[in-house]
Amino acid sequence: MTLLLAAPRGFCAGVERAIAIVEEALERFGAPVYVRHEIVHNRHVVEGLRQRGAIFVDELDEIPDGTDRPVIFSAHGVARSVVEEAKRRRLFHIDATCPLVFKVHHEAQRHFAAGRHVLLIGHAGHPEVIGTMGQLPQGAITLVETVEDAETVRIPPGAKGVAYVTQTTLSVMDTRDIIAMLKRRFPDLQGPSKEDICYATTNRQEAVRALAERAEVVLVVGAPNSSNSRRLVEVAQRFGAAAQLVETADDIDWSLLRGGMTVGITAGASAPEVLVRGVIEAFRTRFSDVRVEELTLRDEDISFKLPPELRDMAQGAAS
């Protein structure tokens, strides 16, 4: 059995930053620390932080009035109404939104200020989409999920133009098709100077494509509610491999696998490396001769600073 490990895989800079924010808040302020929604889409990460004293809530109204405990917003971003509610209640809130998601928020706000109607390419119900749509007044932004949506979407009368932004974790190929349709319909369509799909999503999709070209089966380590992990499964299937999304080694469908195969392994941007190692060990338990090979397409050296609230404290402690 040959295991091909995709590189890059696993945690991206935005996920690392978000987890570090919760860990730093717990270290500085002690437990409990409140976190609105899953900090990232991974049960293993969430449970580890919960054991250390993080309390995860769906909405701010679950947090007691008058608390002085930190309240952290997830990496996916939140609507402006959530931030306003936190300010109204005088909650000490720390925003762990990925800087690349912030970039999309700023683009949407800039286009709206210029009088353009904004089209958001993304998946309905995803926290990032909810947060981005919540940056603008109702009716100022329209969700486009498919090429078919792009063919039929209507721009409200009175708009001075039309622009698009995208969710950061989409399929690169599917998104290009949607944008191409929008450009055919709206020749003056405005878009970002640099595409919104983040570097980590793009890099991991390129890597899984390379896996699919060599492996018969590709296993993607990630959560079912992780958009970027699900897109990796789709890319692997599109390029000819059987593919399965697994949260842990316990989820592997061994009926797909037999000795002598080449199996690709990758991980979504919110999946920790310990889960990948667990998958490798599961193979070594079942098969007598397992060779592990790294398939590296590119290196990643991107990192993001902690938010000012924690950064200022760190500087004060150092002095």
What are the main properties of this structure?
319 residues; alpha/beta; Cobalt-precorrin-4 Transmethylase, domain 1; Rossmann fold; 5-stranded parallel beta sheet; 4-stranded parallel beta sheet; disordered C terminus
Describe the structure.
The chain is α/β, with parallel strands linked by helices and 319 residues long. It is 41% helix and 18% strand. Strand 6, helix 5 (127-133) and strand 7 (141-144) form a beta-alpha-beta unit. Helix 8 runs parallel beside helix 9 (227-238). The longest helix has 17 residues, at 13-29. Residues 314-319 have low confidence and may be disordered.
Summarize the structure.
With 319 residues, the protein is α/β, with parallel strands linked by helices.
Order of helices and strands: EHEHEEHEHEHEHEHHEHEEHEH
Strand content: 15-25%
Rg, alpha carbons: 21 Å
What does the overall shape look like? flat
Low-confidence segments, given as residue ranges, are 314-319
The CATH architecture assignment of the largest domain turns out to be: 3-Layer(aba) Sandwich
What is the helix content? 40-55%
CATH topology of the largest domain: Cobalt-precorrin-4 Transmethylase, domain 1
The count of strands amounts to 12
CATH superfamily of the largest domain: 4-hydroxy-3-methylbut-2-enyl diphosphate reductase, catalytic domain
Question: How can the largest sheet be summarized?
Answer: 5 strands, parallel
In which order are the strands of the major sheet placed? Answer: 10-9-11-1-12
Number of helices: 11
CATH level 1 class label of the largest domain: Alpha Beta
The end-to-end distance, rounded to whole angstroms, is 54 Å
Overall domain count: 3
The SS-based structural class is alpha/beta
Mean pLDDT: 95
